[in-house]
Amino acid sequence: MKTLEQRVKFDHHLPIGESLVQFTLEGKTHLALVNIGPRGKVMCLPMPKPEDMYTSWWSIRGDMSRSIGSIIVWASQNADLMAKFNGEPLATVALERKSTVSETV
Q: Which of 42, 58, 71, 94 could cross-link to 65 by cystine, CB 3.0-4.6 Å?
């Protein structure tokens, strides 16, 4: 069985760089920016909600995720950042409850 990282990198033909992706879990959908680095590192920025004071990028390794430090304050008020969430997602990735990233997206 493939990990979340493998499914994001290989199953959806996402390019190197930023892509808009829709994650699904138990009938709910969540938009996120996914960044695949030139060496294959996968990072995810969930679409911030207006009430979220803090937002950060998450590193995805295997089926695990962790915040990578840099905090964005009131990201939902940043028009340039929020514009990246407009448009059609390039992929829809199903999450599984065992995946810790499902709690963050």
A: 58
